[in-house]
Structure formats: structure tokens, C-alpha cells
């Protein structure tokens, strides 16, 4: 260990109480930053999962302007070829085709507008959670093409139950003529989301295509990825590859701008917290170092008198700040890690809370990342060294005779 | 260590004026002195006479308002801050009244400190530390911290630190002031011995009668001027 490092480390422990109080204050701030960042990330992931995993998927491919117009005529161009390509796409975990059209569901007692979704149950199971939330009946267990699956609220509105018949009316593609068919309620699901529970009805895709006169056309191909970062990265080549030929390929940040804002907000919140922490750190460090300097005026004067250059004094004080930072970082990382580990096992219960239009359905588990344990501690260290420059410059500027008060 | 009788330090019209709340207070009023290598000199005078200011200027701890200090013919007064640091490190040893050891460094580390600044090799540093601790009879205390030493022992270590880098002179400010008379006398005998054995130049600022009695040259400073300058055989 170099001379100044040795001196600095030992000086740090000369006033143990002051060092520990300052160190613990910084450590608590760092631990809070690490833990809250992990919590925000967990919350954002939870909300994204709630929004994407339940039905939408992490990304979607549509015919151009379909999302804007909801025009059933705007089908995915070359859907068969695209789905064949997706089978061999290494980034893709699952995909499923859908038809989407506005329609009316009529029972003997009531009528309600719905988004009629034509699904392929086999691939839909791998992508959405619809089959997991069936409250009554089943999710297209048999092969009856007249089966329809609806939400609990819609069933209540229509006053229907399992086995009851409903009529679905849609406007056909191309001609715009009305088309009707009779379906039997085979499954009732319950999501904790009004939009899904009372505004949608699901039939087999082949039946929907026939009803809509779409042939083999589909309006949407929903996607999920092996690495969810692909869905967030708008610059990933995947989106350009599938967003051609009259189609649009978009990840969840474009499909759900509100969710993207939440994600950005968590980053901003961490940043603000970080700035506050660093402000507290800076005041604590400056105060501690100045107290230490004032207590050691004569000693610093002696160091200067025997030949230590001003730069040496500067280095010494900055290293003392670094020593304090290292101590705080060890404590802070340990505390932050402990908190994150505990809650990553137990989880935090915010189930049922709706935020930015998304209902949190599961426990929130803090997500630990390398950034929290490398970037934040390194930031505290660098910031502390930077802040230490001020008292260091003060100590280096002191006149030797002034520092020693009573000198030669 | 140095060639005896060689001109070591010369002051030329050395003047220092302090400003106290806007009032100019003259501390030194144009002092011309010459110190020779190997001298054992006591600067005495009443409090506020200017003796401390004189040593501050000689050692480069402070800068004169007017006049110059020459060490081996080189002007100390014209040096920059970093040059002055290096000058003190390489040419001057300091012994202060008290509290002048670094409390977080062990005895051997305190002595080694200046040599570390000088970039002296580890083996040479250790050899010198060992030798100087033997000279000041503190060999058994090398690994102790200053707080575990008596006042006299601390001053012995301070003398060792001042001498270990082989400076041209040692400036001592009331080195016996905080010691009992026997410890002070022992310490003074040791410094006198080192002066004779190593031809080390000692300049004291003191009120201590013992130091004045042992000094071969006594300079009396009064009201910022040299009142008398007596050399004894």
C-alpha cells in the first residue's frame, strides 16, 4: 500500500464514531438506491408481463395501418410465409395468428359489442394466458367449431352460462355485408381486467375467417421472445426484417406507449433517487473531511513543513474520502443485497393495484442487476472522490505557518 | 555531513511585516546574518521579538516582505511552493515543541516518511531507520505508535526523523519546552553529540537556559533586530 493510501486509511479510523456515522448514512442511501432500483425494475417487469403475457404478446405483426383503422380488410401480407420464417427465427419463443374484428354478441336476453378474436388454440396456449384463467368450462378442449369463449362480465351482461347459445354478428371483409353465426358458450374466463372480461369473445380462427370472408388471411401475428430485451429494442434487426412488404412489426413499447412511459419513469425515478443520494453523500463527505482537517491542522502543517507538496496533501485528503467511500460501499452493497434477496424470495404484494391502465396481478419481485452492484457503487466512489477535491484543495492551499499556528 | 565553517545560510536585509486588522506590524526589520555549517546556535529573545519569524523565513515556511535568504548561495525566497516543499524535504530537518509526530504512523514509519517522499529505495530506508534509531537510543520502540511514547521519547524520534534524510541543518523550536529538566538535558546532550559527531548544523529558537549554555553561538533578537551575536569557543 502506498504511503498516502496507508496514511489515509488509518486517518479514516482516527475518529471511529464520526466515520461510522457518516459511512452508515452513505451506506443506507446506497442500499436504498440498489433496493429501490431493483423494486422499480421488478414492478416494471411485472406490469409489462401483465400487459403482454396475458393476451397481447411482447410484439405483434399487422398489415400496415391495421392498428390505426381496425379495418378487418388489412390483413398481414404473406402471413403463411412469415409464420414459416418465424418457426425458424432463433429469437422467437412462440407466435400465434389471430383475426380481429368488431362485432355484436346477442343472447336471448341482451346484446353487447365485442372484439371478436379468431384464435388458433394450440399456439395461443403457448403465448397468452387465456387458457390459465378459465373459470368455467374449458378453452377449446373439443373440436366443435361453434364453441365460443367469453369473459365473466360479458357472460353476466348477456345473462348466459356454459352451454348457452349466442349469435355473433360481424361485418364481412370486402363487401361489408353482415354475417351471422350461432355459437355455444364453451368456456368463461376471468381476467382482472375490464377490457378483457367484458369486451372480447374468442372463436376458432378458421371459423372467424369464414365468418369474416377472409379466406386464410389473418389480422395479427402475436409474438413472444426468448430474450425479452428484443421486444424493447426498437433497433433490433428483427423489427426491420418483419416490418416490410406492407406489414408493421412492433414491440410492446410501441404497442403500449403508456407502459413504455412507466418503464422510462422507473429509470427516471432511480436517477432522481441517485441524485438525491449523491447530494446527501457530498454533504456528508465534505462535512466529515472538513471536521477531520480542522482537527489535524497542526499535523497537516507538520506534513507540509517536512516537505510534503501541496499535491501530496490533496492526494491524502482525496484518498481519505475514498477510504470512507469504500467502507460505505461495502456496508451499502451488503445491506442492499440483503434487502433485495429477502424480497426477491418473499415478493411484495401489490396485487389488484392498477397503474397506467395495467393491473398488477402477481407479487412484485425485485430484480437484481449488475448495474446495481457495479454502476451505483462505482458512482458513489467516483462521486465521493470528486466531492473530496473541495476539502482537499482547501487543505493543500493552507499556509504552513497558518496551519501550525504556533510554529517555528 | 557538511563541511565546517562553510557559509550555509545568509540573510540579506530580511524584513517581515504582518498585517493585523489592517495595521502593519513589523516582525523583522532588515536582518543580516550568516550561519556556518556545523554551528550549534541558539536564537533567543523575548516573546514577540521575531525569533520565530526569523526561523520561518530561513526554513522557507514563510516568505519575507523584503530581503532574501540564501542557502548555499541559492535564494530560498524566490522559490515556488513546490520548490519550497522540495527544499525543506531535502535540506532542512524540523523539530517542533510537541505533537510533531504523525500519530497514525509507527515510529519507524514516521522516520521513514521523508525518505519515502524523497524516493529513497526500501533497503536504504530501512538501513537508515535502523541506524538513526540506534543513534537516538530508540531501537526497541520502532513498532510503537507515538501515543505509546513519553514526551522525551517522542522528541528523540522527532530528532531521528529530522536527521535521517541528511539535511543541511536542523531547525528546532523550543524542543525542550514540554520536557522535564533531566529529559531536556539528556536530549540536548544527544543533539550536541550528533552535532559534533556528524557536523550537523543546529539552530534553536529557545527560552531554555540549558540550550543557551550549551550553544556555541547565541543570537539575541529584540524588536525585530539582532541585539547581539556572540560566538563562544
Write out key terms for the chains shown:
heterodimer, A: 408 residues, alpha+beta, six-stranded mixed barrel, 16 helices, 12 strands, B: 233 residues, alpha/beta, six-stranded mixed β-sheet, four-stranded antiparallel β-sheet, 36% helix, globular
Tell me about this structure.
The complex is a heterodimer of chains A (408) and B (233). Chain A has 16 helices and 12 strands. With 408 residues, chain A is α+β, with helices and mostly antiparallel strands. In chain A, helix 2 runs antiparallel to helix 12. A 6-stranded mixed β-barrel of chain A has the order 2-3-8-5-7-6, surrounded by 4 helices. In chain A, strands 11-12 form a two-stranded antiparallel sheet. Chain B is built from 7 helices and 10 strands. The mean pLDDT of chain B is 89. The longest helix of chain B has 18 residues, at 181-198. With 233 residues, chain B is of the alpha/beta class. In chain B, a hairpin with a 2-residue loop joins strand 9 and strand 10. Chain B has a 6-stranded mixed β-sheet with strand order 6-7-8-3-9-10, with helices on both faces. Classes of the chains: A alpha+beta (408), B alpha/beta (233). Chain A binds chain B through residues 3, 6-7, 10-11, 14, 298-299, 302-312, 399-401, 404, 406-408, and chain B through 52, 55-56, 59, 61-62, 81-82, 85-86, 88-90, 94, 96-97, 99-100, 102-105, 109, 113-114, 116-118, 161, 171, 173, 205.
Task: Show the helix and strand layout.
The complex is a heterodimer of chains A (408) and B (233).
Chain A: H1 3-12, H2 16-56, E1 59-63, H3 66-69, H4 79-87, E2 92-106, E3 111-119, H5 121-127, E4 134-137, E5 147-151, H6 152-158, E6 165-171, E7 178-189, H7 194-198, E8 200-204, H8 205-212, E9 220-225, H9 228-232, H10 237-242, E10 247-251, H11 252-255, H12 257-295, H13 297-305, H14 310-346, E11 354-355, E12 358-359, H15 370-397, H16 400-404
Parallel strand pairs in A: 3-8, 5-7
Antiparallel strand pairs in A: 1-9, 1-10, 2-3, 2-6, 2-9, 4-7, 5-8, 6-7, 11-12
Chain B: E1 7-20, E2 23-36, E3 40-44, H1 51-58, E4 66-71, E5 74-75, H2 81-91, E6 92-95, H3 107-118, H4 122-135, H5 151-164, E7 169-173, H6 181-198, E8 201-206, H7 209-214, E9 217-222, E10 225-231
Parallel strand pairs in B: 3-8, 3-9, 6-7, 7-8
Antiparallel strand pairs in B: 1-2, 1-4, 4-5, 9-10
Helix pairs in contact in B: 3-4, 3-5, 4-5, 5-6
